Amino acid sequence: MKTTSILTIVLSAWILLGFISCNDDNNYVPEYVVVNAFKSKYPGAKRVEWETKSGYKVAEFQFNRKETEAWFSADGEWIMTDTDIPYNELPGAVQDSFRQSTYGGWRVDDVDKIERSNTETIYIIEVEKGEIDVDLYYSEDGTLVKEINDNGNIPNEPPAVSNSIIEKVKEMYPNARFELESGNSEVYLTIKSDGTITSK
Fold it and tell me: What mean pLDDT do residues 128-147 have?
């Protein structure tokens, strides 16, 4: 009888402590300057919850019926926003580039739109095949910026340089002679003394 009473008290205290912890987490609200900046940027945001990550104030919420996460500095400066979007809301250039890539036949698991302060928007398509997951980072014009597998490494067989990179180089340097290595999404140009431009 006494053991049962002690056990009941311990369990009750543990459950109460759990509720208090949950409430503390759910009730966290950052400084007024951060909340005010958030409300100005996302009026009408719903189901807002705050937390801190790496020193930033992060709001998780629904905006325009999409799961969204916005990062702010402690003084209220907007840093970035990560929005879950459906595949069909990707820019056409990104969809075309993905379909023509090595990963075009893989299953699309998730798509994110990353908007950052003073930086171009990036789209991340998370794909999987069997037990392999790869995150593909695209710029708005369909350029594959980088790819990372589920171990955080670049896959062993990255796709060939996208056509959009080749076309951009040709547009910027119409008379240049250059070579592009498969799997390298960055193009380094070298101007020789005779005026010819080559890639590295």
Answer: 94
